[in-house]
Every structure is written in C-alpha cells, then in structure tokens.
Amino acid sequence: MSQTVTNRAQGEVRLKVAYKKPEALLSEYTRSIGRGGVTLQTQKSLPVGTRFVFEMHNPGVAAPVEVVGEVVRVTAQPNGRYMITVKYDPGQDRGGLDAVLQRIFDLQEFEKLRRYPRVPLHLPAMEEETPFAPPFFVRDLSRGGVGLEVEAPALPASVKVGMPFLLEMDLALGTMMLHGEVAWTSAGGPEVLPTFGVTFGTLLPDSAERLEKLLSLESMPPAPWRARVCFGMDAVMRMP
Question: What is the pTM of this model?
Fold first, then answer.
C-alpha cells in the first residue's frame, strides 16, 4: 500500500492510496465507512469544513473508489501539531466500487472449493449475551456463509463445528438475521488469530434480500458498524 497527498483546489485535500489486491482495498473501504470517521495528527491546521477525498486505487481497476470526508473538528496539541477529526461519507459515484466488486468476483470465479463469491469486510461483532466474550470480526461474507476472526489467544468454547450460529446486523432496510452452523475452525498460531467459518441455513426472504444489498454495498448500516453474534441455544432461540 502506498499513499500520496495532493491539493487539488482550495478547501480540498485529496489522498491517493494504492492497494495491490482488490480484497485489501474493499476491506479498508468497509473499515473506513464502518467507523464513520477518523482522527488524524497533522503538522498544519485545516479549517472546519475542509473536504477530504480518499482515492483508493487497484491496478486491475481503472476507476478509483472514493471515500469523501469533511473536517468537523480541529484541536491544537502542545507539541505544535493538530488533531483533525474527519467525518466520512461513502460518496455518490459507485463506478469504482462496482468495478472493484466485479474484479473480486472475477478472480474468485474459478475457485472450486467455494460455491459463492466472498466479499471481504472489516466488521466488528460482539457476543452480547456472554460476559467477557472476546471481540469477533467478520472478515468475509457470501450468500452461503461467513468467515470470522476472534481477537483472542484461542477460540471460545462455544465455537465448535456443528454449533448453531446467528449473526444480526441493523441495516437501513431493517435487521438482517443470518442463521447457520459452524462449519470449520482454525486454532491460529503465534501471529495468526483463531478463525472459523459458518454455513448459512435457508434464510427468510427479507434477510436474503438484505444480505444481497449488503454484499453489493447498496444498503449499509449507519456508522459505527457493529454486528451481534450468538451460539448454541441462544442462537436457536433468537433465530427467525
């Protein structure tokens, strides 16, 4: 990943970021949009209202994916620097985003082990019903299932192959409830977090529609993005 900062016009800052893989680009895009904004430390102050444009480039895609931001707060620091808070907006031009999604689907077309193409995400999730449960992260999502990472030294005891599972997320269209069961697990290693994969069951029409909208990033939740997960009898009792 490489970065270039340019000033195109008065009142606008444009940051170009290049990614070697379209999956890395889309993962960072969802991370940025999902958290709703970012706070940066800079050497120079910027007026509130300054427009930020983050151009995200991939060599296989002609048009960049753009994340538009606006400076909403500037705070002077004792060291002479400034903390600048930028609020994100997905932007209106979907040309680059659609092209990156298609590029990912094209690269996965000939994979024999997966029935459906995966969309890389960076989506935090919590097991709200379990005290002291570790954070989960949704790493990829498809029509057939979901892959998650656990920010812990080992998988929780609730994560076992065959265990019922439910992922809930509030979208603009309403709550999406994706139920299934744990299909595989990986214990990870010294520098690799534990992961597991879930295969979805037959989804209700409204959840299937909301899943399609999320996979195309046409319907996204309000920031900050957060999902809820549960396992076993908790999942069964909450399943639609």
Answer: 0.79
Burial code of 100-117, b = ≥16 C-beta within 10 A, e = fewer?
A: bbebbeeeeeeeeeeeeb
Domain boundary among 107, 136, 155: 107
Q: Which of 45, 72, 107 marks a domain boundary? A: 107
Q: Is the peptide bond before 156 cis (omega within 30 degrees of 0)?
A: no
Residues 59, 17 contacting (CB under 8 angstroms): no
Query: Residue 53's closest CA among 75, 34, 32, 35?
Result: 32
Measured CA distances, 64 to 29, 37, 38 (Å)? 11, 19, 20
- Structural domain count of the chain: 2
**Whole-number Å distance between alpha carbons of 25 and 180:** 28
Measured CA angle at 228 (ends 226, 229), to 5 deg = 140
Q: Over the stretch 148-204, which tens digit does the pLDDT of each residue have?
A: 999 999 999 889 999 999 999 988 788 899 999 999 999 988 888 999 999 999 999
SS3 234: helix
Longest dimension (CA), the chain: 58
Give yes or no: residues 122 and 81 share one domain.
no
pLDDT 10s digits, 70-120:
899 999 988 889 898 888 876 666 788 888 888 887 877 766 666 778 888
Show the domain range for 36: 2-107
